[in-house]
Write a structure and sequence with these properties.
about 325 residues; alpha+beta; Immunoglobulin-like; 2 domains; six-stranded mixed beta sheet; four-stranded antiparallel beta sheet; 21 strands; binds 2-acetamido-2-deoxy-beta-D-glucopyranose
Length: about 325
């Protein structure tokens, strides 16, 4: 039945393209996107004009959520408007109004006008996004520094501390869900590392900068647009962070110093060895110098030593 109806609409719209006895006169385009916030109303201002002699057999309005079926919302036959859903009313010719919006009302809304005398169906669609504002426990953003120690580094005997900044606490992220960004002391924007239990988290790295960090929301995001102009959630929250730091850095400096001392000792030992060897050689060279002409002498000695070697091994 619905398939037949779809085929009828398809054929009708294609056959109609030539004659255009119906003209849409509203200001919005077919396929346009509307954005509203929860609790607000929306009006789809559809209007049309007909050529003389044409008439309309009936009008119907429908809604289709993403991935869902098309559902009839209301119809108009013989000048009688019949809503099939709550919160829907008829405005100005062929417009409809939906009041007290919820995020569930996010959908595509269409109007179909059936022309009299087998004239076919004309259709227009508007996509509606119903956004919801985010909410925090205190009504503003609050940011704290949290320290975390990992067990791993305890096994290694060092005190490896990780610092995190936590911003929140959110009761609801709104819709579409918001996230917070971070601004470091240089004014560079950083994304959050994580979201846990209502808090957005920024992991601070070892080589971090000291100074003021800010947690803030993107004021251009759709859900933030649903906050009142004076909402404290629109303001940045600030926290001071010390420069990368104390235990971890001094521990690594200590390691460096120890290594430096060891290297220095090794170098001194090496120099002493070289000096002693040089000294001995110099002494030996001096004592041999008178015998230098009698080169066969030492050679015989060496030969004897070499002969003696295998037996000793
Ligand atoms: C109905 O149309 C008139 C004229 O365009 C307009 O002034 C009025 O605001 C419309 N009413 C609604 C409820 O849209
Ligand atoms: C760290 O150690 C404590 C106690 O030894 C343990 O309860 C905790 O689960 C450990 N944490 C991690 C992340 O391993
Ligand atoms: C942030 O730090 C925590 C704890 O130190 C760690 O479990 C998590 O994986 C880190 N996240 C990122 C993105 O680095
Ligand atoms: C803020 O949101 C707008 C709209 O969603 C987006 O275009 C822009 O890139 C965002 N800015 C940042 C810094 O993420």
């Amino acid at each position: 039945m619905t398939r037949l109806w779809v085929i009828v609409i398809f054929l009708a719209t294609h056959l109609l393209q030539g004659c255009e006895s119906l003209q849409w006169t509203q200001k919005v385009e077919d396929g346009e996107q509307f954005t509203r916030c929860t609790g607000q109303d929306v009006t789809f201002p559809w209007r049309y004009s007909l050529e003389e002699g044409d008439d309309v057999a009936g009008v119907s309005w429908s809604r289709q959520r993403q991935g869902g079926k098309e559902v009839n919302l209301a119809s108009l036959f013989f000048l009688k408007f019949t809503p099939n859903q709550e919160r829907i009313s008829h405005v100005n010719e062929s417009g409809i109004k939906v009041t007290s919006l919820t995020t569930d009302d996010t959908a595509s809304y269409s109007i179909s006008v059936r022309l009299g005398g087998g004239g076919g169906v004309e259709r227009q669609t508007i996509h509606l996004l119903v956004a919801e504002k985010p909410e925090t426990v205190s009504g503003s953003l609050e940011v704290v520094v949290a320290e975390t120690r990992s067990n791993k580094s305890h096994d290694h005997g060092s005190t490896d501390q990780h610092q995190q900044l936590k911003c929140g606490q959110f009761v609801s992220l709104g819709s579409p869900p918001v996230s917070v960004m971070w601004e470091d002391p240089d004014g560079k924007l950083l994304p959050s590392s994580d979201y846990q239990d209502g808090f957005f988290i920024l992991n601070l790295t070892e080589g971090r900068k000291g100074g003021n960090y800010y947690c803030l929301m993107n004021l251009s995001s759709t859900a933030v647009g649903c906050l009142s102009e004076t909402s404290a959630l629109r303001d940045k929250a600030m926290v001071g962070v010390l420069k990368s730091q104390t235990s971890t850095s001094s521990a690594s400096m200590g390691g460096g110093t120890v290594a430096g001392i060891i290297i220095a000792v090794l170098i001194i030992v090496a120099l002493v060895v070289v000096a002693v060897v040089f000294f001995l050689k110099f002494k030996r060279g001096k004592s041999y110098s008178p015998k230098e002409p009698e080169s066969p002498g030492p050679d015989k000695e060496t030969e004897e030593m070499l002969k003696a070697l295998p037996s000793s091994v």
